[in-house]
Amino acid sequence: MATRQTASIARLMRLPAIVVLFIWMIVPLAMTVYFSFRYYNLLNPAAGGWAGFENYQYFLTDPAFWQAIRNTLAIVLGVLAISVVGGIGVALLIDQPIFGQGLVRILVISPFFVMPPVAALVWKNMILHPGYGVAADIAKFFGLQPVDWFASYPLFSIILIVAWQWLPFAALILLTSLQSLDGEQKEAAEMDGASAFSRFRYLTLPHMSRAITIVILIETIFLLGVYAEILVTTNGGPGYASTNLPFLIYRAALLNQDVGGAAAGGVVAVIIANIVAIFLMRAVGKNLD
Amino acid sequence: MARAVKTSTRVSYTIAAWVVALLIFFPILYTIITSLKTEGEAIAGFNLIPSFSLESYREVQNQQNYIKPFTNSVVLAVGSTVLGLLIGIPAAWAMAFSPTKRTKDVLMWMLSTKMMPAAAVLVPIYLIFLRLGIMDSRIGMTVLLMLINLPIIVWMLYTYFREIPGEILEAARMDGANLWGEIWHVLTPMAVPGIASTLLLNIILAWNESFWTIRLTTTNAAPLTAFIASFSSPQGLFWAKLSAASVMAIAPILIMGWFSQKQLVRGLTFGAVK
Amino acid sequence: MRLTPILMGAASALAFTVSANAAAITIATVNNGDMIRMQGLTSEFNAAHPDIEVNWVTLEENILRERVTTDIATGGGQYDILTIGNYEVPIWGKQGWLLPLEFSADYDVDDMLPAIRGGLTVDDKLYGAPFYGESAFLMYRTDLLEKAGLTMPDDPTWEFVGDAARKMTDRSAGINGICLRGKAGWGENMALVASMANSFGASWFDETWTPQFDQPEWKETLQFYADLMKDAGPQGASSNGFNENLTLFQQGKCGMWIDATSAGSFVSDPKQSTVADKVAFAIYPHKDGVDNHGNWLWSWNLAIPTSSKNADAAKTFIEWATDKAYTEMVAGKEGWVNVPPGTRTSLYENQNYLDAAPFAAKAKEAMDAADITKPSVKPVPYTGGQFVAIPEFQSIGTTVGQLVAAVIAGQSSVDDALAQAQSTTEREMRRAGYGR
């Protein structure tokens, strides 16, 4: 119904956001692509010049590369699975008529407010530490040998920490969606004698599908970039057991100070992220309309 | 809810919900408790009752003045969010009410700007900041954080605005309201919950951003993420001190989150209510 | 309590215009006890130099190293004084990133321990002033060793250490025979493993820069380390660094511990350590027949980047923080045992210090025994000790450290780890252009 006038005003309103984001995207991207074809190591300023595809070749043949891809996907999928399934469970539970609902909601959402390095430090030192962590105390209480989580199950431990941060977010969005579910519909289904499970399966779940899509989309964007939790806890190890793609790039950039190699890694990561995004949009995009 | 619920059901749901909630909250709770212990107590095994010693807080404050990073965190989080809203609201508004064929693509493109791993562009950004003379400045960090979160701001607002029925707009137009009047008097009140939760969510995201805020600051603009980075692996016994520093870093945002939780949730629908 | 940031900014801007000498300096430092103490003494510095305003940036070691490297390599000029190790000083000095330091005669440069000074000197110019220095030694529990029916020889071999560790171990009583670093990192587990390898006769590279992990000495080193950790090490050894082991030792959970000499003051301080009266020290072990005690030598140093805009003020601070008067001031305030050790000969001739610090003699002996110009008994093209003084070592050391940690965590075999270490090091050295 837009008139020409409103259309041009609309263009004007869109413009600032598009322009600043375009600059924000293109300038670093152009520099990154440029650096990715050059020898550029901060620790070795003498070596410069064109590298051709050597940075790419070096990054792609890194002994940790394929494991990093696998770990990246494992972290994304693992955290998504825990936070969506757990989020649905928590949302359903909080949606029930319970005493102290407000307080429960506050407690549940809290981990989302915690900055990633603090979350990682807390889990590493307070909870999972094999000597002084709560998990070790529990193991000792049952007369078991405490588990050294970050050495024995590094990837699982990281997924656990990240999922802990994102589950509240999922639960919150899903709860909002649940609360918009028409009460009458629910009652009607109940009267028809539908079991609790089939009510959930055929009424609640379809209603939440859009919210679930949103959760998956937003979390994926953030989960593809997880690195702080790894840096604080396992440093990508033991071996490469918990190295993901962002961490591999982090290592190239900030440990090796290899700007060229890190740039090549960044370009590779952007390409992979876009493939994931296209795949994701194909899979769940129709839920968004 | 109109239905009567049996008290026994309600009690069992309540118990289940509280168990889950406390489990999820436990790591934070235990950190708060540990921060009130002495270092000796902190490693003496599981214990939920601290001696309420404030020694660790005192030591942390002696070592690193808290006020400055705290102020910086507030300035950066609030500043970048307000700036983001100033740019994001018009854009989302236009996209929601005057969509073009490419609106969806533009949105996806905006989100895709978040996919470049930060470490890969550190040196480019570092060089730009040096060239512009905004290294370790609040202005530089505010703009940077705004740019990082702008895609999320636009997207959230867009999905929220889209839920506002277009008929209201037309009705207002028939009453002779011009575009700005339309926006100001009719739609803004309806948009407030969405804007409020976008604001809150982005304050949280900006507060917790911990790559750039550590790498592009030294003293003037360093926020609480840099504050905590100086406690992450100290010498000697450090559990209680680390807990105290952690609590100091997250307490402001946690408390803000608790108090504004209702507003946060109300608009956090991402159009999910459809 | 400081003034508000705005006031501070205004004050320093004002100070600039009023006096030409006035300056604000920014010091980047790590969060170690001695550095934090230095930070706490800033007011003393300001009492003597009211015209220099000091800003501190304290960061965790690895993040500090990243930050400082990025800044110095891009000429950022964010810092006026850097706290860096004797690993970086010669490399950065050679790059022209640091200002050479020349001190007045009172400073008495010749009092510096020769080993430390040598590590900070490039082409006869000093590029860093040592704040504290350390080597490594063996700390052990006299009571447990006695219980095991053994006595510590003057010059222990690894065979003896292995035997003693296994005999002291009593896991039901929570006592591990030996605690060693296991947490991956070039400055973490590799500091231990690399010095251990030195003392087993291994080296990182031969004279043509070919990695040497396929040599029998490395296999022997790693096998010994892995077996020892399995038989006599603490639970979760692969995530233990200096700090974790310190805590374990202080709580009486380790029979022996081989680590930096700076640990000496922590384990013999009765306020922190439950075993303070039962600790003794011995020189770093070696393999029978190999004349090498690991050559572990580390110092934290203050240096001025060439990008500093207040180099004179920075030098004034460095001179204050690293000369003898600072040591005496700390001794006066905190006791002799707490002075930053390992930088000056005069400290080890000071009877007050020797009386207060039971570990001092052994620490000095360890430092004197460390020769970073000759890390290995084999001929090598590099200097260093527990590290190799080339820029690529950070990355190589960390990667190898990860592979070693995987062995200790039981997720990889010694042979696999060494084979991977060999191929990944070859790859990185090729990339860096060695032998190109």
Automatic annotation (TrEMBL), chain A:
Q: Name one GO cellular component term.
A: plasma membrane
Q: Which Pfam families does the UniProt record give?
A: BPD_transp_1
The answer to whether keyword Transport applies is: yes
* Annotated ranges, domain ABC transmembrane type-1: 69-280
Q: Which InterPro entries match?
A: MetI-like, MetI-like_sf
What SUPFAM superfamilies does the record tag this protein with? MetI-like
Keyword NAD attributed: no
Keyword vocabulary terms for this entry: Cell membrane, Membrane, Transmembrane, Transmembrane helix, Transport
Record membrane topology: Multi-pass membrane protein
Compartments in which it is found: Cell membrane
Please list every transmembrane segment annotated in the UniProt record, as residue ranges: 12-35, 73-94, 106-123, 153-176, 208-228, 259-281
Q: Which GO terms describe its biological process?
A: transmembrane transport
Q: Which family does it belong to?
A: Belongs to the binding-protein-dependent transport system permease family.
Question: What PANTHER family does the entry give?
Answer: BLR7065 PROTEIN (PTHR43005), INTEGRAL MEMBRANE SUGAR TRANSPORT PROTEIN (PTHR43005:SF2)
The name of this protein is Sorbitol/mannitol transport system permease protein
From TrEMBL, chain B:
Q: Tell me any Pfam family this protein matches.
A: BPD_transp_1
Keywords, comma-separated and alphabetical = Cell membrane, Membrane, Transmembrane, Transmembrane helix, Transport
Its Gene Ontology biological processes? transmembrane transport
- InterPro entries, alphabetized: BP-dep_ABC_trans_perm (IPR050901), MetI-like (IPR000515), MetI-like_sf (IPR035906)
GO CC annotations, alphabetized:
plasma membrane
Domain (ABC transmembrane type-1): give its ranges.
70-260
Which residues are listed as membrane-spanning?
12-33, 74-95, 115-134, 141-161, 183-205, 238-259
**Range of residues in the leader sequence:** none
Record-linked PROSITE patterns: ABC_TM1
Against CDD domains, the record matches this protein to: TM_PBP2
Localization: Cell membrane
Highest rank taxon of the organism:
Bacteria
The way it spans or sits in the membrane comes to:
Multi-pass membrane protein
The family line of this record is:
Belongs to the binding-protein-dependent transport system permease family.
This chain's protein is named Sorbitol/mannitol transport system permease protein
Record organism: Amaricoccus macauensis
UniProtKB/TrEMBL annotation, chain C:
User: What Gene Ontology cellular component terms go with this record?
Assistant: periplasmic space
- List keywords of the entry alphabetically: Signal
Q: Where in the cell is it found?
A: Periplasm
Give the residue range of the signal peptide. Answer: 1-22
CDD domains of this UniProt entry? PBP2_TMBP_like
The highest taxon in the source lineage is Bacteria
Q: Which InterPro entries match?
A: Bact_solute-bd_prot1, SBP
One Pfam entry for this protein is SBP_bac_1
Which family, according to UniProt?
Answer: Belongs to the bacterial solute-binding protein 1 family.
Xref: PANTHER family: ARABINOSE-BINDING PROTEIN-RELATED, DIACETYLCHITOBIOSE BINDING PROTEIN DASA
Q: Provide the protein name.
A: Sorbitol/mannitol transport system substrate-binding protein
Q: Which organism is it from?
A: Amaricoccus macauensis
